[in-house]
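Supplementary Note 2. Why include the ligand at all?

Several targets in our set were suspected to adopt different conformations when bound, so apo predictions alone were not considered sufficient. For every target with a known small-molecule partner we therefore ran a joint prediction. The input for pyridoxal-5'-phosphate is given below.
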Amino acid sequence: MTDGETPLPLPFGYRDSALYVEDVPVSELAARYGTPLYVTSEARLRENARKLFGAFRPQWPRFSLLYAVKANSNPAIVRILASEGCGADCSNPAEIRIAVDAGVPSDRILYTGAYPRTEELAAAIDAGVRVNLDDPELLPRLLACGRPPALSFRVNPGETEAGPEGLRFAGPDAKFGAPLEPVVDGLRAAAAAGIRRLGLHTMPGSNILDPAHFGRLGRFLATAARRIRAAGIELEFLDFGGGLGVPYRPSESPLDVTEVARQIATALRSAYPDGTAAPTLFAEPGRYLVADSTILVTRVTHTKAHPIPFVGVDAGMHTLLRPALYGAYHPVYAVERRETEPHPIQHVGGPVCENTDVLARDRRLPRLRRDDLIALGIAGAYGFSMSSQYNNRPRAAEVLVRGAEGFPIRERERFEDLVARTRLPPHLTGTLLPPPVGPSGGR
Ligand SMILES: Cc1ncc(COP(=O)(O)O)c(C=O)c1O
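The joint prediction is reproduced in token form.
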């Protein structure tokens, strides 16, 4: 039994009463690699990339996907997506390096830094990747480092209803992007500095499940592109960011990405009616590509009946931060189903000393016992990548499943990783001396 309702995405599913990822029982992976354990299906990753290309290419042939590496930067995952033709959206030089090492060509890498240090701009120039500036006033600092092969600016489209609370990046209070007119000035300045390949970027929100939002975004981009053309600039690329949502809750339906593509392309065709000078369209999804490719497997450590029924597990906010960070919902699945038992309402809590360390609230779960395994679903996006060592807990391991085989793609951290970079200054080494005695004889 599960908490019920959010369907497991294929190729996750039950055979008899056991949860499988592709052809591997989850319990076997937990026994072999320990818990908490992130388990990713390679087939699902590939399917997600193909679904997006399949939705967009017929509508807009010059379409490219840039995987937002921040969602899960494991090199194996970046490489699988690169082998499907995805480029990379990178938010810092480390992510650029991960993408380059995974084999992503530099022309398919876009660096978007929010509030970057000059060294970060210089690293992007050295890597020869496309650069997307959050603020046109960053241009002189960028040009002092060199000229990128292609440049865009992030425009803030103003108030939108994009995305749930905590996942909205646009509007008058947002920290991202600049209004259109300063962006037009920035594009003019970039052209005057000799940069020929120019683009426009926007990213108003995340986890959006309404195709109409993307239609509005397409109309915004079309209007902006016309305004930019009126300023004498032809854009080489338009980037509508990420934001493609996935259903986490039982009440949510999958996003119709064919409809998203249709609405965006219809809007953009109004700015490029003959199609010949049409720019490349970039999307830079993170969540859509990886969220449902991965589950987080965790073991029950204790169950407590009062004051409300709690299932304690060995994963917590240090493993999966989203529930504590913004009340995110992750479905919970039993790894061994016991259908016949009653399913009381329970909370699932982690071992971290914070009252917010609750991974799931008010779920109808089977009566779990110590050492049972459960899986938190849709855990591939901003799961491992937001994890931490808080409370001195080493980070989890990651495993990739391909058919009947599991491959470790990240080792579990150990105690040594917690302290590896700490140092004692000289006066604290050696035998600890008693505290100095003050004139009064005390401390
Ligand atoms: C610039 C940029 N692009 C893409 C993404 C990916 O967003 P999502 O995971 O919603 O697709 C993000 C996420 O924060 C982002 O900041």
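The domain at 12-41+291-419 is CATH 2.40.37.10 (Lyase, Ornithine Decarboxylase; Chain A, domain 1). Residues 132 and 152 are 5 Å apart (CA to CA). Comparable summaries for the other entries are listed in the accompanying table.
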